[in-house]
Write a structure and sequence with these properties.
It is built from 37 helices and 7 strands. The protein is α+β, with helices and mostly antiparallel strands. Belongs to the SMEK family.
Length: 793
Amino acid sequence: MTDTRRRVKVYTLNEDRQWDDRGTGHVSSGYVERLKGTSLLVRAESDGSLLLESKINPNTAYQKQQDTLIVWSEAENYDLALSFQEKAGCDEIWEKICQVQGKDPSVDITQDVVDESEEERFDEMSSPGLELPPCELNRLEDLAELVASSLPSPLRREKLALAVENEGYIRKLLELFRVCEDLENREGLHHLYEIIKGIFLLNRTALFEVMFSDECIMDVIGCLEFDPALPQPRRHREFLTKTARFKEVIPISDPELRQKIHQTYRVQYIQDMVLPTPSVFEENMLSTLHSFIFFNKVEIVGMLQDDEKFLTDLFAQLTDEATDDDKRHELVNFLKEFCAFSQTLQPQNRDAFFKTLSNMGILPALEVILVSGMDDVQVRGAATDIFSYLVEYNPSMVREFVMQESQQNDDDILLINLIIEHMICDTDPELGGAVQLMGLLRTLVDPENMLATANKTEKTEFLSFFYKHCMHVLSAPLLANTTEEKPSKDDFQTSQLLALILELLTFCVEHHTYHIKNYIINKDILRRVLVLTASQHAFLALCALRFMRRIIGLKDEFYNRYIMRNFLFEPVIKAFLNNGSRYNLMNSAIIEMFEYVRVEDVKSLTAHIVENYWKALEDVDYVQTFKGLKLRYEQQRERQDNPKLDSMRSILRNHRFRRDARTLEDEEEMWFNTDEDDLEDGEAVVPPSDKMKSEEDLMEPITKFMERKKRTYGKLLFSSFLFRIKLNSKEIIPKCDKMTKFNFFVSCLFQGGLVGGLVDYPDDDDDEEEEEEDDGESKEDPLPPSKKSKLSS
C-alpha cells in the first residue's frame, strides 16, 4: 500500500488557534479500503502506531506553505498540518493530492474553502481571471473597493491572491506608499491601509513571504499605521527601529538565524499590535499567519539547540562570577525566552531540548542566578519562570539534582532552599511570585509523581532529604511568628505568606506519612499553628483550622495523644467562644470539626473534649453536636462500668441471620402477652410461679439498655432468640406469666443453660429434624416456612 515514505511532523490546531504537536512519523499515500479512497497515512517512527489516517477528499482545500508545509481542514473546527523534513517529500505528497483532486501541482491551494450557491459558482467559474487596476494614485480607491468586495467570496479571494502574486503587485503598492507618504497624501494612505489589511486576510503563504521579507516588512508596517478610524497615525516603525533594540547577549554567527529571529519578532508584533483585532468571521482568515509564526519559532529553537558553541558560551557567562549584573540580567531574560519558545516543540524534541540544557548545567546556573539576583525583581521573576519550565517538564530531574548537591553544599545554598527563600522574601503585596513558587514546591513534594524502581524509591529518599534539609527553612516564618498567644506580626502580607506555608503543610499531612508526623510532634507544630486562630484575618485562622482538621481526619492515635497531651482543643474552643453567635465560616468550620469527632466516634478525643471543655460548651444548643458528644461519652463510660452489658452488645452485633424488624417486633410482643390458654396444645409449659426477681441484678442493666437504645439489631436478635426458646424448650417450660418468661430468657442469655447458642450453626438443623421426628403428636410446624427459611439462612 505504501508508495512513498517521508519524515513529517503532524500538527492539529486547538481551540486557542495554537498548533499542537501530535508526533513525528513517516507519511505515505495509498488506497484504504475502509475509507473507500486514497488516503494520507502517518505512522509514528517510534512504535509504528498510526498518527494520522486522512482520506484525500475531492472537495477539501489543501494549502501548500513555505515549501515544506501542507495544511487543510478535516472539519469546521479541525485543522491539520504536515511539516516535512525535506522539500522533496512535500512535493511528492502535494503531487499525489493534486492528482486525486485533478489539480495542477503548481498551485498552492487546491479548492475553495467553503461552498457557494450553484449560480454564483457558475458565474465565477465562467468569468475570466481577475484583472487588477493599474497601480496608480488615482486608482487606489478602485483597488480598495475591489479587495473589499472579493473577501466574502472564496473564489474571488483566490483569484485576487493569484493576481496580486503573479503581477508582483505588493512591491508596486509599497512603492506607491512611499510616494504617498512623501506627498503626505492622507487619503491615499488610508486606501493603502485597507488594501494591505485585505491582503493579510487573503491568508496566503506566498504573499506573506513577500510582505515579511527584509526589504518589504517595514513598509508593510508603515501602511498599517494609517488607520482611517484614528485621528493620528500610529508610530510602529519608530518603536521597532528606535525603542525595540535587538541585543545579542551571545553573538550569533549564523546570518540565517539572525534573519529568522528579526522576522519572527516583527511578524509577532504585527499580529499582536499592528493588525486590528479580527472579528469572529475574520479569525480563520489569519490562520496562515499563526502558522507562519509558529513554525518560525520551531526553526529558531532547533537552530540554537544545534549550536553547541552558543549554548556553551551562554552557560559559561551565566555562572561566571565576573559577569556584571546588567549582563547577567540580559542572559537570564534570553534563557527565559529560549525556554518559552521550546513550548512550541513536539514532545520528543522538547525532551531532547531539556536534556541538552540539563547537560549544559542549567540547574547550577539557576542557583547562581538566584543567589546573585535576590534584590532584582526582574531577575527573580525570570528565574522563577525558568524553574517552572524545568519542574513541569521533569520534577524527578530537579529532585535528583538537589539530593546530589546536598552532599557537597551547605543547606543555605541548596537550590530548593533558595526557592523557599524567594517565596518567603517576595516583595509583591499580592505575593504573585510566592504563589507560583509554592505550587512548584508542591509539585516537587508530591508523591504521585515520584518514581519507584527496584533498587531505590525516590519518594523515601527525597522526603527524607526534604524533611532533614529543607523543612526547617519552610516553617521558619511560622515558628518565628507564633512564639506567644497571638501572632507577633498580623499584617496582611505576612498573613498571606503564612497561609501559603500552611497550605503546603496541609498538603504534606495528607500525602506524607511518618515524615510529617514526626516533624509535627517533635517540633510541636500544631500548637504553633493554632496560635494563628487568634489572627484578625479570618482566612489565616481558617487555614489553621483546616490544618488541624486534616490531622484529626487521619484518625491516627499518635496524633490524638499529642493533641490531648498538649490540650490543643483549647485555642479552638477559645476561638469558637470569641466568635460568639455570629453565623460565619469560622463558626461552621469549628462545629464541623467537632461533628466529625462525634460521627466517626473517635473515643479518645470525645472523652478528652467532654472531660475538659464540657462546661464551656454545654450551653450551645442551636446545634446538637456537643450534646451528641456528651451522649457518646456517657455511652462509652457506661460500657466501661458494665462489662456484661458490653459483652451483650458484642453478641448482638453478631448478625449471622436477620429478619424483618417490624415482623419481629410484633412477634416478640405477642410472645410476652401470650397466656396459657393461648398456647398450642403440643407446647409444654412450666408450672406457674410468683413474680420472682432472682435475676434482678442482671435485669436492671438489660432493662436500661432496652429502654434507652431500642436499636433495630437488638430487636432482631432478641426476637430470634425467643423463637429458638420456643423451638428448643417445648418439654421444659411450663405455663408461666410474662415476667417469669422474661426472667427465663435472661437466664438463658447469660448462663446458656437451656438453649443453644444464638448463632444458627448447620448442626442445629439436624437436631431440629430429630426433635420433630420424636414429637409424633405435634403435626403442626411452630413456624411458617418463610420464617424457617430466614432463621436457617
